Batch of 2 targets.
Target 1
Amino acid sequence: MIRLQRQKVFDLLKKDSSHLLNKEINVKGWVRTRRGNKNVAFIALNDGSIIHNLQIVVDVNAFQNDELLRKVTTGACISVNGKLVASQGKGQAVEVQASEIHLYGTADPEKYPLQKKGHTLEFLREIAHLRPRTNTFGAVFRIRHALSFAIHRFFNENGFFYLHTPIITGSDAEGAGAMFRVTTLDMQNPPLDEQGKVDYSQDFFGKETNLTVSGQLEGELGALALSNIYTFGPTFRAENSNTSRHLSEFWMIEPEMAFYDIHDNMDLAESFLKYLIRYLLEHCDDDLAFLEKMYDKELTARLNMIVGKQFERITYTDAVEILENSGRTFEYPVKWGIDLQAEHERYLVEQEFKRPVIITDYPKDIKAFYMKLNDDGKTVRAMDVLFPKIGEIVGGSQREETYEKLYGRVKEMGIHEEDVWWYLETRKFGTAPHSGFGLGFERLMLFVTGMGNIRDVIPFPRAPQSAEF
Ligand code: 4AD
Ligand code: MG
């Protein structure tokens, strides 16, 4: 086969390819469909660079390789040399008239699981090694990339530094829910101490370690030196929550800012979310249009709503009052002090305000130890951002910067001082008011793709009983 410069389908369909018209080019990819008759074959080729397929036209009689053409079936991988021409058919601007085809890999039609269209998302989850080849997952993973890129771009444009916080930690930032243990001890025969407990001083790090639930505590150390930082990495939670909004391994973006109070924090969260959605509307229109058609007719309208509306800001106490006076019966009854459930959050966003809502000043007993205590002694400077369809998408707060108050909370909540002594020291040496928040990347992915299950917006979902691929 003659060596020609490979062209990506994206470049041929989305960029100006007029300089290549009527020239021989090369394209490579996977066959989505092959149809036609004994004279002409039409191959729909997809290389993942874009949702659309490139049409390859084969003059069967001139081609003289029936043997090879027979093997060009759905799922097969091919390389095609041919002339790029303006398309005669409708639906595409250009197509390729094949002169040579090389078959990299066949896909036996009897066995290839994606032979037919229209598989359920549940079935595709069972073949997560092949689902990136579908239109749906191609679109989702391209959007995932674009969203990651936009996140870094936003922070870079705004003077934030990307700080890499550890994945293996000796502390428990949130104090809620279980953590995954990291150990090299022999599980069959662990060393024991005098009390008969596992002796972690003999473990790899000389202490108990876990996978992190959040990069925040280390992020704060960075902010109290570099002013504005953010983390963007995997976090791990061993809660046994089998819901459509929870993963055991998910990605979180955590900005942390010195000299920000809770209002600055809310302003940042709001402009950040709007920026990201605007970026996707501008850069992912084809993929969004596909997902809108297939899964969520109101997708673009909802994305535009976020960009166009000011987020409502209310206190927890006011939110509880609204919920109590709503005349609704909720599955979890509402009273001051309870943790708000998704049903409550969605009522506020979807029924009451019809826009994103930021709730502040939650009871201290349902929030983490590091949040700044209000003067009432009962509530903390927490802020959660609630989105339609999702509920909580961002959780954050102004941090307690006074040593004595923070130390008091550590003791009150039974946190081991020896695990967080370094965190406490930042309040002893040059403490500063500061704030930050965590955005659940997959929660935002759920929102922007219109997908219904969080396992369908991450390539290899980790959830209870699920770590096959
Ligand atoms: O509210 P969370 O637990 O807050 C923190 O971890 C803080 N350290 C953040 C900070 O202030 N720097 O988690 C933050 C966000 C949630 O709002 C939610 O979007 C997401 O992370 N999240 C999950 N996403 C998927 N699966 C789970 N199990 C999640 N738990 C939290
Ligand atoms: Mg939270």
Target 2
Amino acid sequence: MKIVMMGVQGSGKGTQSKMLAEKLNLPHISTGDLFRANIREDTELGRKARQYTDSGQLVPDSVVIDMVADRIKQPDAAGGYIMDGFPRSAVQLAAMEYLSPADRVVMLDLDDDTAIKRLSGRSECVKCGILYGANRKPVKDGVCDNCGEPLKQRSDDQDAAAIKQRLDAYHSEVRTMADYYGWRGVLRQIDGSGTVEEVIEKVLAACN
Ligand code: AMP
């Protein structure tokens, strides 16, 4: 099953996508995670993406589409996947429909004030990239549970202007996609303001 997860940053989309991937035994494909891994490893793709991700802008469509097209060709994605962070523009939506149309699109709804509050409380490990936030707190403050390295705020969460720009971009782009996926009959909208456990139950039901 090919599932696209949508939701404003801070809606719990990443956490829910990971949990869903585990429960359905499908790979979790997060474009944001793929960019962050490439930036950490200082690959050519990472160097291309960094100038955009640091200022909260979208990476150009051609770069993202090539990256996703490569990823979904991997053998682990033959039975489907949980796509997180893609598509995010009309061109990406068209590419997705052409390459690998989604069977289900789950949209987590959340108001901007709650999203901003959640985002400013997020941090990530400088080494392994694990993300901490309201739903996952480190045992020791500022230290990664997994590898013991320090945590820092994600560079694109530090700047209020960058957060605002990402939320505005999300709202303007999501309308087209919600309209399109709604028309195709695959869209399921869910209230993302509950606890992780409450939301995952609704997400699972939406994927049936
Ligand atoms: P995220 O972790 O989903 O918030 O993504 C972090 C950053 O990666 C975004 O602010 C963008 O700069 C970039 N990014 C992730 N997914 C996409 C996408 N589908 N299209 C363009 N840029 C993206």
